[in-house]
Structures are given as C-alpha cells and as structure tokens.
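Instructor's aside before we start: the two examples that follow are unrelated to each other. I chose them only because their records fit on one page, so don't look for a connection. First example below.
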Amino acid sequence: MSDRIQFHLDENIDLDIALALRRQGIDVTTTPEMELLGQTDEIQLAFACEQGRVIVTHDTDFLRLASENTDHWGVAFCKKNLSSLGEIIRSLVLIYEALSPNEMRGWIEYL
C-alpha cells in the first residue's frame, strides 16, 4: 500500500484528467487502460479496492455501493457537467496533497 493516495478513473471520467494528474506525479489508472470497459460498477470498485485506489466517478451507483460497504479506499464523486475539468483536477490534487490513503478510506468526497 502506498503512503500517498492513488486514483482510479471510472470509464465516464475524461482521460485528460488522468494526463493532468500524472503531470503532477500522481499515480492514476483508468478503466480503459485496465481493460475494464463495460464491467459492472461492483467489479470497478473491487479493482480499486484491490489496488488501494480512490475511485473517481460521475456515477451515482458508486455512492450507493460505497455507503453499503465502507471497506474501500474512497470515492471522489462529481456530478457530471457540474464542474469544469480544471476544477475536478484541482480538487483531486488537493485531496492528494491534503489527505492520506487512510484518511480517505471508507470516505465519499463530493467534488
């Protein structure tokens, strides 16, 4: 387990966010890169849990899943089209800089 937060971007998250986070030195995986396109939300969350990653999503189903079982490394949720890419990136960088993985564990952060 890393001592820094790592992110996994759900398939609905713009891949430019991953590129911007990586330029900041942040460890990010994406659903297409991990060959998880079309997999269920449960499988996506299980992958993020196994990898110790905070899942970044627009999908409200993750809010339900994360509240039913808090044994996950965190969910960063942003309602689609509510925030600009820059706002989402800045929020994720702030989470990365301000919180430890253990502080995000079982937590849902609304961006």
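Example two begins here.
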Amino acid sequence: MNKTKKPLTQKVADTNSKLSKTVSAHAKKPLSSKKEKKPIMPCECSYDSIALRAYFISERRRELGWDGNEQTDWLEAEKQLLAEAGVK
C-alpha cells in the first residue's frame, strides 16, 4: 500500500471543489414557507435599554434599602422590558 501524497495545493483545490458543490446544492433549495418565529429578544430589549433599566432599578433598590445586586437588577430589568413588550 504505497499511497502517494497529494500536494497541499491539490488538497486545497479538492476541498474547495467539494465545498462549492455543497453550497450550490443548498443554495438551490427553496425557502421554507413556515411561519417565521418571533425573535427571542425583541428590539425593545437591547443591551442599552436593559442596562438603563437595571441602573434605575438599582438606584431605587439602594434608596429603599432592599437587598440585591447587579445580577438581580439586570434580570429584573429584562423581565420588566419583556413584559412591556408582550413577550412571555
């Protein structure tokens, strides 16, 4: 069993050829007509909006002397914004 090794350029060319065939096959498939899923995080729940809400929650929490930390403030902010957006 004396296999001759292919040069690296030939291996790359073979891999590119296989990849092109795979991409072409998948590109020809029609798009599914299924209903589009709702995004998990609507645009109202951007990082900045969550951060801002968490900031105000933490200020209020400190003002009232309630226990908590940054993580609980962040989770509460996400929860509030998702509820306002109508996402369960």
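The mean pLDDT is 77.
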